[in-house]
Amino acid sequence: MPLIFITGGVRSGKSHFAEQAAVTHFQTKFMHGQRLIYIASGVAMDHEMKKRIGRHQADRRAQTVKWLTIEAPYEIADTLNNLIDGDIVLWDCVTTWLTNAFYEGFDTGTPCVAQPGCLEEKLRVVKRAVETLLEKRVTFFVVSNELFDEPPYTNEEVELYRQMLGKLHQWFVSIADEAYEINYGIVKKWK
């Protein structure tokens, strides 16, 4: 089934666009038992993130349809593998999940980014789960942040993150049925 990839800068309107597209799809393709699912990867570790999560939750509550929210900050593949035919799913967002993947294990002393092969394995597992998901009758909206207008970073870890995210974006776009970029609330369809 279709995969729709949506990217843009922070506060560009990409989440709002994705939510509206998912709701419209849900309302026009409604089947009995169909679920409208929001997969949230954010973790409220600071005041700013708590505000952002609260704003996204309030936006969904204000809509005329009911969202099923699944919190998946780390094990996104498990969540994707449990989706069923007919689900309409919005994952917000890839960048937050990748940040979580980088630093998973930090609290126990060794973050994933410091473990050889850890990040590559997490990406492999996620890609396999997405590919399996596309074999089901699931409509999948994927949101991510655009971070590539800046020159390369001198911090190795930040640059590694940016490079991995760039490759992940390219992969998503290559398998997507549609790809959008949102800037200043203006939508550009690339694919």
Q: How do you describe this structure in short?
A:
Helix content is 43%, strand content 19%.
Largest sheet: 7 strands, mixed
Order of strands, widest sheet: 3-2-4-5-1-6-7
Low-confidence stretches are none
Distance between the termini: 16 Å
What features would you highlight for this structure?
191 residues, alpha/beta, 7-stranded mixed β-sheet, 43% helix
What does this structure look like?
The protein has 191 residues and is α/β, with parallel strands linked by helices. 43% of the residues lie in helices and 19% in strands. It has six helices and seven strands. The chain has helices spanning 14-28, 47-61, 76-81, 94-103, 118-133, 156-175, and strands at 3-8, 36-40, 68-71, 88-92, 139-145, 178-183, 186-189. It has a seven-stranded mixed sheet, with helices on both faces. A hairpin with a 2-residue loop joins strand 6 (178-183) and strand 7. The longest helix has 20 residues, at 156-175. It is globular. The two termini are 16 Å apart. The mean pLDDT is 86.
Question: What's the topology here?
Answer:
Layout: E1 3-8, H1 14-28, E2 36-40, H2 47-61, E3 68-71, H3 76-81, E4 88-92, H4 94-103, H5 118-133, E5 139-145, H6 156-175, E6 178-183, E7 186-189
Parallel strand pairs: 1-5, 1-6, 2-3, 2-4, 4-5
Antiparallel strand pairs: 6-7
